[in-house]
Design goal:
Helices cover 75% and strands 0% of the residues. By secondary structure, it is mostly helical. The chain is globular. It starts with a helix and ends with a helix.
Length: 467
């Protein structure tokens, strides 16, 4: 029974989290309780598989977290997203794309999809993108006669693109954790000069699957508009211009709305993909560029800047507190021999590496209903990552599969986080059932993307290998 203490530790953490306690305190508190139990049993000469010497590594781990150059990108990208949100870049961009594509059947839905993609690439935060797009685009779509299911489904699905479109906060955190897991797996395999996987590799690996998802969303909206035009009525461009209160040239509005965020995205991603900057350096470019955009739009004053910095500090503190709690959890898990137990369970699974990967993806998908991506990245991936990577999986492919899997679970009723975000800004006359119906086709498209990625790993691994 004591051999399964690592599994009891994991179940206990999930139970505490479901009781509603803060994530960081739940992880640290449960881990300390189990560590105390292990020390107590050891002092009573009870044969318990607990190695207390591993706990001595905690100070060095904490120092490593606070001096990690990769994690420095987190507050800078968060600041970039908050500044873009407060400078109302999304509003101008949505107006421009709506006028450009509004006279195409289904064009308004495609405009929302493209703007959601650009906002995802700008903010990297799912909640911020879903709420912003819900507030800005849902009233317009409903006014133009779109069905509530199609409108809410489109907004939810495009909002979750922040999980996979670089520069995603999720990919930054996942890249740091996978890098450690990959080196650990190679040392286990006897490779004493291990290769590394960087956040930039994950960014490059996510680019093609992310763009393919956008194409699938747009294709679905076009098919719905063609097959059932009453769900996505055709809009007149002049009527749209009157509704938006725009009397000038369409191309001037398009230039003002499209050029700044696209230029910023190209500056950030281009510097990473071109090898000119690390993700951390590129994040400073993004934050500074967002600051300049807010200044240029005359939406940056002292209260706005103070609010942006406060939001950034709050989210960053949450991330690092969770990371500290997860580090303590990981040490206690290892002290009980959890890594060996997971490796033995994976080796005993039918189907070998395929069966182990399927079970892992199913567990992560289900955990996505109750845990945010930060907890799953810091708690689950360090546990299963070394064992899976030691079985020969590509770390970039595994990272992108996990990211899309979490993106799908955040969209799946009844517990998907994106559904809760949108429900909070949706008018009362739109029922929750309409949101659930609307996201189902997009969930199927994401599952199709997962299957395609499983069948053709080159979708994620080709670009990093070339660049």
């Amino acid at each position: 029974m004591l051999d399964f203490m690592p599994l009891f530790l994991f179940v206990a953490v999930c139970a505490v989290l479901m009781c509603g306690y803060p994530v960081a305190l739940s992880l640290a508190g449960t881990a300390l309780a189990f560590a105390g139990l292990g020390l107590g049993l050891d002092s009573l000469n009870v044969a318990v598989p607990f190695d207390p010497s591993l706990m001595a590594a905690m100070p060095n781990r904490l120092y490593g977290i606070m001096t990690n150059q990769t994690l420095l990108a987190v507050p800078l990208f968060i600041l970039m997203g908050v500044l873009l949100e407060k400078s109302r870049v999304a509003e101008t961009l949505l107006d421009a794309m709506t006028l450009l594509l509004g006279n195409l059947r289904g064009g308004l839905g495609i405009a929302v999809t493209l703007v959601g993609m650009l906002m995802a690439a700008s903010t990297g935060i799912v909640g911020a993108t879903v709420v912003t797009m819900g507030l800005l685009s849902l009233p317009t779509m409903m006014k133009r006669g779109y069905s509530s299911a199609l409108a809410t489904g489109t907004i939810c699905a495009t909002g979750t693109l922040g999980q996979i479109i670089p520069p995603s906060i999720a990919l930054i955190l996942l890249g740091d954790v996978l890098s450690n897991a990959y080196q650990e797996a190679q040392l286990t395999m006897g490779i004493f000069s291990p290769k590394t996987v960087s956040v930039g590799d994950l960014f490059m690996g996510a680019l093609i699957p992310g763009l393919l998802l956008v194409a699938l969303y747009a294709g679905y909206i076009l098919i719905v508009a063609w097959r059932r035009p009453e769900l996505a009525p055709l809009s007149d461009r002049q009527t749209l211009m009157d509704d938006l209160g725009h009397t000038g040239s369409l191309w001037v509005l398009l230039l003002k709305g499209l050029l700044p965020p696209v230029a910023l995205i190209i500056a950030v991603l281009g510097s990473i993909l071109g090898g000119l900057a690390t993700p951390t350096e590129a994040s400073s470019v993004g934050a500074f560029g967002a600051l300049l955009l807010a200044l240029a739009k005359r939406r940056l004053d002292l209260p706005t800047l103070s609010s942006a910095l406060h939001s950034t500090a709050r989210v960053t503190s949450m991330v690092f507190l969770i990371l500290i709690g997860a580090t303590l959890f990981s040490l206690v898990f290892r002290a009980y021999g959890g890594e060996e137990l997971v490796a033995e369970l994976f080796d005993a699974m039918p189907g070998g590496v395929v069966g182990a990967t399927l079970i892992t993806m199913l567990v992560i998908f289900l955990l996505g209903f109750i845990l945010d991506f930060i907890e799953i990245t810091f708690v689950v991936v360090p546990i299963i990552g070394p064992a899976l990577l030691a079985m020969g999986l590509d770390p970039v492919w595994l990272g992108i599969m996990i990211a899309i899997n979490l993106q799908t679970s955040f969209l799946t009723p009844p517990f998907g986080f994106a559904l809760f975000y949108l429900r909070g800004v949706t008018p009362d006359h739109i029922p929750t059932s309409a949101i659930y119906r609307g996201v189902v086709p997009f969930i199927l498209l994401q599952l199709a993307m997962l299957v395609a990625l499983a069948g053709f790993p080159q979708l994620a691994t080709w670009l990093p290998a070339v660049l």
